[in-house]
User: Fold this.
Amino acid sequence: MNVAVLHEVRSYSGRFKTYISKKSKNMKKNTILCVDLKTVMQNDVLLKKDKCYNGVMTRDGIDHYRFEESVRKGRPPRNPKLFDGKYCSLVHMQNGKYQIHMKTIDASTVADRQLLAYEVYAEVLKAFNVID
Assistant:
């Protein structure tokens, strides 16, 4: 299932605004300007600010997009994972905030703690680059 995190849509005079981070291999950021977005929602009539929706987004024309919210089968909505690295992962919570989860580190395999600390620091920076 695809996961879409939607925010408010504003009209701009430009066509496309693209952000691609050289450091982030997993996520490609795009802001698509001046589009028609049709939504098919389960409960909400309009998209709510800072609320995550699970579903499928399709492009059915040059400037026409359609988002269909998926049916939840009794389980609460999950937080979409935006970054998954060797030492940490980054999720976007339902309240609009971001949370970093650290993974288990086997201390017996760590030869240089300063190098490990630097690698964790570098990975946290990569995770923050995913956030707009």
In short: Residues 113-130 form the longest helix (18 residues). The two ends are 23 Å apart (CA to CA). Confidence is low (pLDDT under 50) at residues 1-24.
